[in-house]
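notes to self, project folder thing:

trying the whole complex as one job this time. last attempt i did each chain seperately and stitching them together was a nightmare. two parts in total, labels are on each line so i dont mix them up again. if this works i'll redo the older ones the same way
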Amino acid sequence: MATIKIRAKEKDGVTTVKALMTHPMESGFRKDSTSGSMVPAHFIQEVMCEVGGKMVMNAHWSGGVSKNPYLSFKFDGGKGETLKLTWTDNMGKSDSVEEAIG
Amino acid sequence: MNELRRLIIKGSVAAGTLGVAVGAGLLVPTSVLAAWPDKAFGEKKMDDAISTLLGSGGMTESAEINIKAPEIAENGAVVPVTVTATMAGVESITIAAPNNPSPLVASFDLADGAHGYASTRIKMGKSGDVVAVVKAGGKLYTAKKEVKVTIGGCGG
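result (full assembly):
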């Protein structure tokens, strides 16, 4: 299942990227209400965005980012290019998506 | 002859431990960029976390950083935060919540061409400041905004 919803729009030479990822983002500080044990940390650590093979944005996150994280950023240019967004979590899982900039 | 033998043994031992570490998930293979800064994210005090991450604790307050966050957040689990920095040469934007158990929340490295803009949603354990630290031209600038978190949604 794709875990990333993404939109990339170019206007007046500036591309705005908005992305929503599906992820529990467990900080490791929360207790399970039924069992009383700590819920192990499980969160996205790194989100990287590349355009035409070149990194434009690289984010490092902690478990302090909300569940099903939202991310938005802007960069110059990008018209007609393809953007690649990849996340990696602390359990080594990852997902990526490619989107044509419209 | 003997020295060469030593070297080979040393080399294979080093490669062996690295392989084990990767296999055990201790070292998650990441991109060519800096790996996830676990030390900075593990700090319990915001100032320590920022100086570990960005190298220097000396920061200047700047009016060129704008933090958009709600004054009253009805749900601390989802606090939308947008940071806009208008100075030139922004290299990174870091968002921190000093009252959280792990104060460093997110850090965005921005390449040339990326704007001084980052937006996300963060968790806040209790009312307090949202702090943004912007690195531009090798210097650190900061701004903060207070967010009141009301649990139960009575809006008070």
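what i see at first glance: The domain at 4-100 of chain A is CATH 2.60.40.10 (Immunoglobulin-like).
need to look closer tmrw
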